Amino acid sequence: GQNIDQPTEMTATEGAIVQINCTYQTSGFNGLFWYQQHAGEAPTFLSYNVLDGLEEKGRFSSFLSRSKGYSYLLLKELQMKDSASYLCAVRERFYKYIFGTGTRLKVLA
Amino acid sequence: DGGITQSPKYLFRKEGQNVTLSCEQNLNHDAMYWYRQDPGQGLRLIYYSQIVNDFQKGDIAEGYSVSREKKESFPLTVTSAQKNPTAFYLCASSPPKGEGSYEQYFGPGTRLTVT
Question: Which of A26, A100, A105, B34 could be a cystine partner for B46, CB 3.0 to 4.6 Å?
Answer without folding.
Answer: B34
